[in-house]
Design goal:
1 helix, elongated, two-stranded antiparallel ribbon, 9 strands, about 120 residues, mainly beta
Length: about 120
């Protein structure tokens, strides 16, 4: 299994988010309170973070993206929530935009990574 490259940041403090999918299914009743039941025993967890990469880091990311089959394969990542090693997958392809710099050495790229803990 692929491992998130050590040359890339694990996450950024600014712009990071964590959420879980609801495990509760609610049904409206004609009268009275809604009925609820557990939908699943394994709740899906999602993490997103804004990344700022240098030009050299972007080249590393591009190589990694190809190694994980353009985001299709899972990889290991250190969770910013628990600091444990988690198996994650991209939920969608990141959109990168040039943040600063013209020559490759001084470029800064910004993008949002959206991951699902599998």
């Amino acid at each position: 299994m692929a491992v998130w490259p050590a040359a890339l940041p694990q996450f950024q403090n600014d712009g990071s988010g964590y959420k879980t999918e609801s495990a509760i299914l609610r049904s409206k009743m004609a009268t009275g309170p809604p009925k609820t039941r557990v939908r699943t025993t394994k709740v899906r967890k999602f993490f997103s973070t804004t990344m700022l990469l240098t030009g050299a880091q972007m080249a590393t990311y591009d190589t990694f993206w190809g190694n994980i089959n353009q985001g299709n394969d899972a990889f290991t990542w250190t969770s910013p929530v628990t600091d444990a090693t988690e198996e994650v997958k991209f939920t969608k392809e990141p959109q990168w935009r040039l943040w600063a710099g013209a020559p490759q050495a001084t470029r800064r790229w910004a993008g949002v990574l959206e991951l699902e803990i599998v």
